[in-house]
Amino acid sequence: MRSAVEIARDVRGGQSSAEAELARSLAAIAARNDELNVFLHLDHQGALEAARRVDERLAKGEDVGALAGVPIALKDNLCQIGVPTTAASKILSGWRPPYSATVVERVLAAGAIAVGKTNLDEFAMGSSTENSAFGPTRNPHDPSRVPGGSSGGSAAAVAADMTPIALGSDTGGSIRQPAALCGVVGMKPTYGLVSRYGLIAFASSLDQIGPFANNVSDAALLLEVIAGHDPWDSTSLPEDSPSLLSHVDDGVAGKRIGLTRELVDGADDEVVAAVERAAAVLRAAGATIVELSVPEFRLGLSAYYLIAPAEASSNLARYDGVRYGVRVDAEDVAAMNEATRTAGFGAEVKRRIMLGTYALSAGYYDAYYGQALKVRTLMIDAFKRVYQDVDVLLGATAPSVAFSFGAKTDNPLAMYLSDVFTIPTNLAGDPAISVPFGRGEGDMPIGVQLLGPGRSEAELFAAARVLEVAGGAS
Ligand code: GLN
User: Fold this and answer.
1) Domain boundaries defined on the chain
2) How far does residue 206's CA lie from ligand 1's centre (Å)?
3) How far is the centre of ligand 1, averaged over its atoms, from the C-alpha of 200 (Å)?
4) Mean pLDDT, all residues of the chain
5) Cβ atoms of residues 128 and 96 within 8 Å
């Protein structure tokens, strides 16, 4: 499939049309969606109407925007007005949002065509999409393996060329880890750069929406479209969207890049080797590679698994059988709440709610949640310290290539370790990107991760582009 940049250019130039691009996307979806379970909902009618509107506006000579006629897939925790939105939970079955997320409005206003809602781990809790209430998504490179998660559907949509771009959300790694496992580019932006308005909340102090694409330029273009201040999100940064696409070829000459021990230790040998090859490529492109250690990163996972469940237990209190989706009736309100939540939530969501409620409860709050917040401060300080010395950090995205279904479902801790390299930057609120770099066991893709200080997205795209051009082969 052509890139989003090329599609938008051709649609604007009259060599293609939004309707033709949509037809191509829907044909790719029809060919493999039954096998891969990428989309929970396809909006054929809405997409066709939107494509025709874009083509009509172009015919009148109007500027339809930077994503003119580009098909896009939306993770099903992003609200789109009138379109079923479930967060892959039974508790939201049948719910149609009365408004659209700011990111959805922005991509549509830029001329993109939303084809449907992609599968995820229920409420974005997981690393494999096996926690979806509607069955897992399969990895397009090998359908016996997971696509990663929680944004597994969005990563797979792009990897299977169903849509050139997609949106996901990343609370502890849910864009970067599936991007790595599916062989696509995925970025978690700086906290506050992209509005969370209309994103179904998991852990609000960590959640960020970001792009998936088959190449670095498309990811930069998509982020440029969705970023920038939004008065509907109180944590939104005050600035306008930064210029990103125009900087992707800036290179890394003169940059200091930190090859970080804690971001590779414990990964499979083939993943470590890919990161080392990436370091060599960056060095050859003019960067100075500094080997460093940030011991605080080792604390990330345990702090995250107190903070994220604590926030989730509060955010998910709203699913009470009154306001949204499913209700299971019972003799009084409390019993109705209990019956609804018992029937509506899956096992992992219940586990997180119980962990979070416990961590926040009187008598334990200081020992667990309070302690985790202190660790979070240590993490923020550690990142600040290293970014005084280096511009970018380099490490692995995930410890291994995509694993088989069921390999980690019996052991939540093993599953949680999938995000050991991605979580630190969520805790700090800084950006990071995963870019495909070589292949490993079973010819499955490997992703390497580049991390930078707040608002360093342009530099991260430029460094990722150097790796993309080099190709990653051993
Ligand atoms: N896999 C991590 C978790 O289960 C991260 C999820 C995410 O980033 N949404 O919490």
Assistant:
1) 4-247, 256-297+375-470, 302-367
2) 10
3) 14
4) 97
5) no
| Residue 473's pLDDT band (cuts 50, 70, 90) | low
Q: Which of 170, 174, 423 to mutate to test the pocket of ligand 1 (most atoms within 8 A of CB)?
A: 174
Average pLDDT of 101-116? 98
Do 4-247 and 256-297+375-470 fold alike per CATH?
A: yes
Ligand 1: which atom is nearest the Cα of residue 348? 4
The residues assigned a catalytic role are 75, 150, 174
Q: For 41-88, how does the pLDDT look when each residue is reduced to its tens digit (9 = 90+)? A: 999 999 999 999 999 999 999 999 999 999 999 999 999 999 999 999
Distance CA 411, CA 249 (A): 43
Overall fold of domain 256-297+375-470: Amidase signature (AS) enzymes (3.90.1300)
What are 4's two structure tokens?
């989003």
For residue 203, which atom of ligand 1 is closest to its CA?
A: 9
Count how many residues are written for the chain. 474
Tell me whether the omega of the peptide bond preceding residue 150 falls within 30 degrees of 0, making it cis: yes
Confidence of residue 323 (pLDDT cuts 50, 70, 90): confident
Q: Which fold has domain 4-247?
A: Amidase signature (AS) enzymes (3.90.1300)
Enumerate helices (H) and strands (E) in the chain, giving the number of each. Answer: 15, 11
pTM over 0.85, yes/no? yes
